[in-house]
Amino acid sequence: MSVLVYCENAGGKFKKSTYEVVSYAAEIANMLGTSLTALSIGDVAEADLPVLSKFGASKILHVANDKLKQFVNMAYASVIAEAAKAEGAMVVVLSNTFSGKGLAPRLAVKLDAGLVDGAIALPDTSAGFKVRKSAYSGKAFADVEVTSSVKVITLIPNSYKVVEKSLAANIVAFAPQINDNSFAEMVKEIVRAADKVSLPEAELVVSAGRGMKGPENWGMIEELADLLGAATACSKPVSDSHWRPHSEHVGQTGISISPNLYIAIGISGAIQHLAGVSSSKNIVVINKDPKSPFFKSADYGIVGDAFEVLPKLIAAIKNFKSVNA
Ligand SMILES: Cc1cc2nc3c(=O)[nH]c(=O)nc-3n(C[C@H](O)[C@H](O)[C@H](O)COP(=O)(O)OP(=O)(O)OC[C@H]3O[C@@H](n4cnc5c(N)ncnc54)[C@H](O)[C@@H]3O)c2cc1C
Question: What is the bridge-based pairing of β-strands 13-14 and 9-10?
Fold first, then answer.
């Protein structure tokens, strides 16, 4: 009996959300009095695997198979299910990322498991097994009781801190059965914006809306984001108008994010926008209209014209950085 965590990588490198989910799963294993097995599939170099022990995995299963170098949803779900059965896992944990959201339901069916998608806290095991998850696009919580013997949980990025444990790494090659039917659907090519911070995982996000007037004014948004090491985001009308790519659209019909800091510039704060950003830990709103509804959800607000505020903010950050370099 153990807890199994699936360790996602991007281009052969583990993501920050992977360290969070390993730390989270290690604590569940600790609560259940068992150990944590980490599963890595694909292109991660063997030398990079021991880092998973640093966050609490006492055993690391490594699947190195040429057919599994690229993410294939059906095949990966089969491999994770096989590993879970081989390890006798009672809880299987994944990140609630684009891949994790696709894998978890398939995995739950294969393991006949109850699924909690979008967990934001450790389970409460004082009576049964209850997990708190985000509901109604982050506007509410739901405490879900899972009664199945095997449980699948996806953890929302940025909702659990990375905790170092430093166990000794025990790396074991795992050779799953791979069925050709699992490759009926394949991703042919993945084009990554390699130089940019990934929006779903970003700790800092600079976001802008229709108040920026047009795509030609996004230089200031990008400059501020670069200075802060932040990802860029936008409101729906901005991406609908092709001022920015759809991959930046946050909200009810876009990506849901929960960064430590969300800076909203020239965005009115419509309910559909808030649905995707309201679980941000700190929200800063810059808007020229003091009655903008976004100010009600803000931790800090600047009432002012973005075209006057942003150059001053950028200059102040540059000055701060040069003084504190
Ligand atoms: C079913 C449905 C789903 C939707 N899903 C989403 C979603 O996922 N995400 C989303 O964002 N929207 C979504 N919307 C749209 C949403 O209702 C709003 O229309 C949208 O969020 C408004 O975008 P905005 O704030 O950029 O633009 P606006 O509403 O036009 O607001 C612009 C803001 O900029 C301010 N401003 C103007 N000039 C300046 C300046 N110079 N300096 C500073 N501030 C300035 C204004 O005061 C105003 O508050 C959805 C709508 C529907 C019906």
Answer: antiparallel
